[in-house]
Amino acid sequence: MGKWRYGVILDAGSSGTRVHIYRWLNSARAIKDADAVELHSLPKLQTKKKWTLKIKPGVSTFGDHPADVGRDHLQELLDHALSIVPEDQVEDTPLFLMATAGVRLLEPIQQKALLAEICSYAQQHTRFSLPECDLHIQVIPGETEGLYGWIAANYLLGGFDFPEEHAHGNGHHTYGFLDMGGASAQIAFAPNATEAEKHANDLKLLRMRTLDGQPSEYKVFTTTWLGFGVNQARERYLEALMEATFTHEAKELLDPCLPVGLKTTLKGDPIGPETHVGSDPILMGTGRFDECLRQTYPLLDKDAPCADHPCLLHGQHVPAIDFSINHFVGVSEYWHTTHGVFEVSQKDKTYDFTKYQALVKDFCSNEWEDIESGVAAGKWGKNVDAKTAQEVCFKASWLINVLHDGIGIPRVGIEKGSVGPGYNMTKEIAAHAKGKGFLDPFQAVDRIDDMEVSWTLGKMVLYAAGQIPPATADALAVGFGSNVANGLPSDFQEAGSNSNPVPIGEDEGLTEAAEELAETAQEHSRSTGFLLFMLILIIVGYFFRKRERRFRLVKKINTTLGRNRRPGTPRKIVRSFFGSGKLFGRSSSNYERVLEDGEAVNDFELGEVDLEDNNDSSDSSEGSRVGRSSGLATPKVNVMGFESGSYFADSPVQGVGLGLNNIPNAMDRTGLVVRTESRERLGPNLQMLGAGRRSRTGSPTRMKSPLMKPLEEM
């Protein structure tokens, strides 16, 4: 087992499924190397952009034919995960698939059949750890999605590990979390002490574990609003617009949430001069953003009955939010609509209500033809296409209404609680590792320290925390559930991990060097000196190890550096630097030394050797493993290229390939078998190529060499 542990999680959304892969130090290694500060921190997770893959459409499209979801959807995602996770770690790597909005809309019987098929396929076609289908393959409610997002945001911002650097007052050091997708919106935050006590029964108890085995507990409120995502809100808006203004005589509906002069169908398809629309209503854009704000406000349903005060949207109970200590980060649509859409204008700038509203108002008042020309010229950034430009006016008005009139977040620069002008929130977030928190009531984010703020990260942080051994035998499990005073609540959901530490092997140091070489070679593909330096370190260490440990290390390096082969394909013999010489595996001199050792010869056997250099099987392949291995694995280094790039512009980097080969020596090519009735008596002078073959006592082959002496019979 290497120093890393891995986790694979599939985010099965409505539009597609995205696989995320994370890794962290195994708990034994992390605890051994941790300093005093790190011992009081959560496990440190890592990921890379190339480790994430999204495919379309979503798994919900297989609701009517679940038997096809494995072959037509999951296999590509599983293959991607298998290409990243080291082969010898697959069985210890958990696999999760968690479905959100799309699958929630399926009938219960469809959900059950689809999830069962997904779990069955994954168990049959991979060796990932998937012991319980109900725990690993599930539809998660919006509240759970919000809680995982809250964990991810605070984990990346440093609110958990460095509370003194994120003190917001009254002992509060965590951030609130807002998420908005197409169908729903979520909120999660830790209320102030007064509200937490008053609404204790409404909170979730979250328990994690730091490296020193101590529990880390939080009480969090989380809820979701179905139908309050941007797409569902748009549908409700059009229904209200139809009801208020549609007539059969004038079938055009004036839409203030579309740019001036843009005509579309109710489904949002643009209408050109030659488009046949029949008798269906047509939307005509007027680009009046102030009117768009006014008409989207009623969709908040602020007048709905509130059974449990206080309430925010749609009569949904939410404890009072103290914006003097509760500071929120928003992801997904909060980011894409405020920053992603206006990449050029808003990049690296804080969300400011006054400036943002003026920016959107100016955009929406443009003629549609001018906007189309601007899109083609990249005026608003390369991420803005015609469809995005068409939708931004409504999305911006909905987001502003939800934030300020719905949730009640103060308008920066206007309302109480705002910070001074020129305060760059995005840069403050990026610099949080230097001990800087932020004091704005709201800021949209996408990535922090180059890691995406995704609820999948929160789920895996919880899992990794559950792998840490508890400090006491009576410690409670890691996970979350209802807020109860003592013990575990009946609805407690454990993290799904165990705390059995993986021991650190004697050869881990060199193995880790090999792992680092494999992972960083592509990043230093033009630095030959770096690669040579890494190889020298491995070789020097190799020289000073006992023979048995060298053999184990070679096998370990093979697995580590050869893991980029396509899953299911056989390994090929390659020429290996470790393949010849006394200290690097098989050789005639090494063979002679084994014969001289006497007792070691009983455990040493050379099998058949294929003379072809391009043989499709090697000692480490399944086909040659049974009854043919000498115990000396054929080493292989195969460092594949990869691509990396920035968030806004990917810049591929070509990788390099390394080949370390094994050249069979003359003794190997004879196909000798050293096993005779009296092999423990073999002498040091045995030199002939025919030696060691079984023969009767009177066989002429026994006396063909003048150096050969008769053997005593048993």
UniProtKB/TrEMBL annotation:
One of its GO terms (biological process) is CTP metabolic process. PROSITE patterns: GDA1_CD39_NTPASE (PS01238). CDD domains: ASKHA_NBD_YND1-like. One of its GO terms (molecular function) is GDP phosphatase activity. ATP binds at residues 182-186. The active site is at residue 145. It comes from the Eukaryota. The chain crosses the membrane at residues 527-544. It holds the Pfam family GDA1_CD39. Residues 609-632, 689-714 are annotated as: Disordered. Residues 617-632 have a biased composition (Low complexity). Keywords: ATP-binding, Hydrolase, Membrane, Nucleotide-binding, Transmembrane, Transmembrane helix. One of its GO terms (cellular component) is membrane. Belongs to the GDA1/CD39 NTPase family. This is Golgi apyrase.
